[in-house]
Fold:
Amino acid sequence: MVLSDAAQAIARLPRQPVAAGVGDSPGLLPLRSTPLANWTFLGRLPGLELDGRTAIAARAFDHDRGALLTLEEFHDLRSPGAAIVRIGELANARVGSHPARLWIQRVPDGDAATRLHWVTDRAAYTLVLHDDVDHPRRPQWSREWLLDLAASLRT
Structure:
């Protein structure tokens, strides 16, 4: 799937307010008291449930200033036999006390997505902003902004 296809699929999800607690689920990061509370919750993308517990989840959000964002969570402790590999040499950023990797994916049609990935003792997280933070369509989306958003999730 190219980035534009992913963005179009996310854009078709129904919009609901995060501030009302929509999108918060047991076992996932609570978002009501984070900056994502000001975003519109679009829905959960297909994930993985094991023994009634969420192992892999992706939630999609939209902002009235024109950004699509997904928050992906992988809870390895809930996934028998699973593991998360950390490669320190790839870290080029920090989310709180956690080494992180930030990179930008581009496709020939001009679409881009910025990915920020970090790992804690309990889970791996990835924020995907469907824009290029180095050359954003709207100037408010920057590396600093994305890192601040990730830190606000208190992982």
About this structure: The chain has a mean pLDDT of 80. Residues 9 and 84 are 28 Å apart (CA to CA). The longest helix spans residues 143-152.
